[in-house]
Amino acid sequence: MPGTLKDLSKTWIREATRQKNGFSFMTWLGRPILQIGSDLMALQEIIWNLKPEFIIETGIAHGGSTIFYASMLELLGGSGKVISIDIEIRDHNRKAIEEHPLSKRVELIQGSSIDPATVAKVAALVNQRSALVILDSNHTHDHVLEELRLFSPFVRKGSYLIVFDTAIDDMPDDFFPDRPWKKGNSPKSAVHQFLKENNRFVIDTAIEEKILLTVAPDGFLKCIE
């Protein structure tokens, strides 16, 4: 991506985040979804090409992304499932997901994504089968780094480990005054540290080149071995 266009993309993400316009509670099959359209396009392409048996998601919020992933797996046929993890699944969101027509594709796990007991539950469900992992929960460096370490073993060669909201590192220091994350303490800083420790993954820059706008710069990690 040419430098000027990349800068414009960062500016758009920053201002959309500031004004909440990029995440204005559009819905996917009835559930509010907190992702921008270009990232969803990238996700559907990855899911269609990989045809994973499991999609492991940390961070549920209102369940829009959960239902999005479930709908992709439904189109693929087979028995694929979404394993969605959140430290607190609010009752009304749980009810809406469990009553959704695609609920058969979803396994909900309440607990910290970095709790060994949570990871053990995921491992029992996946049982050595193919998985795509998408991280979008607590955005601090330490939390995301631990998620990367714990969930990367589920990803096979050719699949992806996707880290959302790495764009936090491109925001001004005072952009999230009520949150612990900021530049240098973000998903992106965790990704860069993880890649120093683990040589199984590389940043797939081709995805960013195609979609132009993303909240996950440097966040599409492809497993190469």
Describe this structure in words.
By secondary structure, this protein is α/β, with parallel strands linked by helices. It has one domain: Rossmann fold. It is built from 8 helices and 9 strands. The strands form 2 sheets. It has a 7-stranded mixed sheet, sandwiched between helices. Strand 3 (54-58), helix 3 and strand 4 form a beta-alpha-beta unit. Helix 6 (141-151) crosses helix 7 (187-197).
- Give the % helix: 40-55%
Look at the structure and give the mean pLDDT. 95
Number of strands: 9
Assign an overall shape.
Answer: globular
Q: How many structural domains can be distinguished in the coordinates?
A: 1
Q: Report the CATH architecture.
A: 3-Layer(aba) Sandwich
Taking the sheet with the most strands, its summary is:
7 strands, mixed
Radius of gyration: 16 Å
Assign the structural class, choosing from mainly alpha, mainly beta, alpha/beta, alpha+beta, or little secondary structure: alpha/beta
Q: What name goes with the CATH superfamily?
A: Vaccinia Virus protein VP39
Strand order of the largest sheet: 5-4-3-6-7-9-8
Ends: how far apart?
Answer: 27 Å
Enter the CATH topology name: Rossmann fold
Beta-strand proportion: 15-25%
Tally of separate helices: 8
Could you state the order of secondary-structure elements as H and E? Answer: HEEHEHEHEHEHEHEHE
Can you tell me the CATH class?
Alpha Beta
Low-confidence stretches: none
Short description:
The protein is of the alpha/beta class. It contains eight helices and nine strands.
